[in-house]
Design a protein that fits this description.
By secondary structure, this protein is of the alpha/beta class. The protein has one domain: Glutaredoxin, CATH 3.40.30.10. The protein has five helices and nine strands, in the order βββααβαβαββββα. It is about 30% helix and about 30% strand. β1 and β2 form a beta hairpin.
Length: about 150
């Protein structure tokens, strides 16, 4: 997916098994962020950055949805442990990640592996991607500020 593309309508199921759709956020900007794994240091820092500035993000017209390949039970524990106020999509079959281009080859410890590419899509009120942050561009501890800037 690229800037100017329309995001897919069906995003997936959250940690409660609820369907999450793009149209649920019509009229609001959506921060759709993809992260590799629940309860790892970088992913926790990123989620907590978004949690800590969530009211400010909402005040600026944003909603937040996280996505990883972890299952619903893992997402529930992650949300509870870190008091995350936004839904987490359990994309266990990687459908949304592959559609959005957030799954692919990456380097890990000097080896090329397939995995989640840390990526954030900022989607406007009409469902069109207006900004993409990916890989090393994302500062996990300051991610909310990156979105607000």
């Amino acid at each position: 997916m690229n800037i100017g593309d329309r995001a897919p309508e069906i995003l997936g199921k959250d940690e409660q098994g609820r369907d999450i759709r793009l149209s649920d956020y019509r009229g609001r900007k959506l921060v759709l962020y993809f992260y590799p794994k629940d309860n790892t240091s970088g992913c926790t820092a990123e989620a907590c950055s978004l949690r800590d500035r969530y009211a400010e993000l909402q005040g600026a017209g944003y909603e937040v949805v996280g996505v990883s390949k972890d299952g619903a039970a893992s997402h529930q524990r992650f949300k509870e442990k870190h008091e995350l106020p936004f839904p987490l999509i359990a994309d266990v079959d990687k459908t949304l990640m592959e559609t959005m281009g957030a799954w692919g080859e990456k380097k890990m410890y000097g080896k090329t592996v397939m995995g989640t590419i840390r990526t954030t899509f900022v989607i406007n009120e009409e469902g069109v991607i207006e900004r993409i942050l990916s890989g090393k561009q994302i500062k996990t501890k300051e991610h909310a500020q990156q979105i607000l800037d």
